[in-house]
Amino acid sequence: MNFDIIRTARAILHVTDLEKSRDFYVKGLGLIETESDDSTIYLRGLEEHVHHSLVLKKADTPNIEVTSYKVRSEADLDSLAVFFEQRGMKTKWLEEGSQHAIGRALRVQDISGLPIEFFAKMDAAERMLQRYDLYQGAKAQRIDHFNNMVPDVQKAYDFYINELGFACSEYTADDDDKIWAAWIHRKPSVHDVAFMNGQGPRVHHVAFWLSDPMALIQGCDVLASLGYADNIERGPARHGLSNAFFLYLRDPDGHRIELYNGDYLTSDPDFKPVRWELNDKRRQTFWGAEAPDCWFNEASTVLDVHTGEQVTTAPGKLKQAKPIFVI
């Protein structure tokens, strides 16, 4: 392949109430508001040096418009366009100036029907890492990864690994050794994107990196004091998969957000993916606590990059959705 995808870069969420969303993401999660108008809010993490990593767009219905990856150069965008077109995957160019604070971008529906975007250039912004006087809420540092529900995880895995150049850090397999979920990356961490078996294509969650586990605990205190206790869906706890400390919560429109800290380095070319059995209860929560059914069943719907219509979903090919807990 003759293109270089660097990392997870941004997500565009459609929300129904900008003020409620601003309160949640700025006061609760601690993201920095770079800029806003009557229809859009641009947010970034404390350590991020670019204009935004999260865009909130006012809409009648909550959806995910696109999840985006940064590439190394403008030439990589051209190479990706050729790559997709050769495979019969229709692309859409958004020229520089058509989106605020971002350069030329390429959008496409991926092999599973998820709307994805690639770009090389974004406007710079002040890095707030040492502006401790501005820290609030969970003190979110940067965007980290996406997790998607798709009907055929093996198909998504093969495409991203063999065609787009991602690498696998960990995966879950069933008794027939079929992949139920996979965590794959371009940056040298556990993942930039994960795929799990389920009704899809849908976006399960968008994750933000925190500086340490205590930031996550303090974030829980702030969220509860702001009235968001009922928005906390799962955790805080530690994943077996990834070894990360986590908290899942739902924003005012039901989009799932993960606060995340503590995975590990995956840069070595001879790193061997870690395999988890589907019924090992430690894979989802290392301490053994069971995840709620909604965590396996609910996710955000996505839009077609060409029509703007909601993408039709299909059930997962593999039937089992959560571990069987044997007492």
From TrEMBL:
One MF annotation (Gene Ontology) recorded for this entry: 3,4-dihydroxyphenylacetate 2,3-dioxygenase activity
Gene3D superfamilies referenced in this protein's UniProt entry, alphabetically: 2,3-Dihydroxybiphenyl 1,2-Dioxygenase, domain 1
Keyword line: Dioxygenase, Oxidoreductase
Class of this enzyme: oxidoreductase
Enzyme Commission number(s): 1.13.11.15
Boundaries of every VOC domain copy: 7-121, 142-262
PROSITE patterns xrefs: VOC (PS51819)
InterPro entries: DHPA_dOase_Mn/Fe (IPR011981), Glyas_Bleomycin-R_OHBP_Dase (IPR029068), Glyas_Fos-R_dOase_dom (IPR004360), GlyoxalaseI/FosfomycinResist (IPR050383), VOC_core (IPR037523)
Residue ranges of the TM segments: none
Protein name (Swiss-Prot/TrEMBL): 3,4-dihydroxyphenylacetate 2,3-dioxygenase
